[in-house]
Amino acid sequence: MELIVARNREDLVKARGGGEVALVPTMGALHEGHKALIRQARARADHVVVSIFVNPLQFSPDEDFSRYPRTFEADLDACRAEGVDVVFHPAVEAMYAPDRQVSVSAGRMGAVVEGAARPGHFDGVLTVVLKLFNVVQPDRAVFGQKDAQQLALIRRMVADLDLPIEILDVPTVREPDGLALSSRNRFLSDDDRRVALALSRALRAGVAELTPSRIRAAAREVLDAAGSDLDVDYLVLADPATFAEVDDSYEGMAVLAVAARVGTTRLIDNVSVTLTRA
Ligand code: AMP
Predict the structure, then answer these.
(1) What is the pTM of this model?
(2) Phi, then psi, of 138 in degrees rounded to 5
(3) What was the pLDDT predicted at 278?
(4) Of 80, 214, 222, 272, which is the most buried if we count CB atoms within 10 A?
């Protein structure tokens, strides 16, 4: 089957075959992490739609919207190789009317942790994801655990707004040395890349401990040791469903999440940790 490139809703309606559809929303610059999502989509549906859209709504004016990597031809090759049926690649103007008024609010949970560092970011994410859901009308959609708060908010949106879509998630794909794959990694110099390894190293040091305070302390120690080349935005141990910080009385799954700038590149990473009270 030829890969179909759809630019708008009409193209998508024409391209839609019978059977179940899985959507993989991306901003392009596809890497092995995206491919893992595509493989999960293929395994769980008859047709796979990959959207490639750098969403201006989720970038604040001081962020890297114009600099964000755009590698559309290579992305199409990757989608062909992975057996994707349709790539949905709308123009910004096709997604957002100049007079649009209504958008999704991510609520309180969208204003903590990553949302506190990037005000409005999750409103932009949820608005574009809901629009993609409405245009593509998938049965399932696949997201990465790499963006753990985003994943939790999408599950919350599906529950709160009764969206008839099953959300699937995929573990974070990493380089052999631990660095989480990201489209932004291409901006890292060799020196930056070495500094960036402190993120995954800190998370590993954290999960080796047993209590929230020791987990935070062990991870923080690794981040501090990276010195001033690593500009840490946050390190949190949070409830994965709400992103509220947990204390030493918490039991169950938690997420240890970090965000930091290396040079001009902002990176995020997280791992899950199971807490049992001693
Ligand atoms: P992005 O193109 O960065 O917006 O990411 C598109 C989707 O790919 C999101 O659901 C991300 O969580 C997911 N993703 C990004 N990087 C990775 C990774 N290293 N491993 C697994 N999923 C990822």
Answers:
(1) 0.97
(2) -80, 160
(3) 66
(4) 222
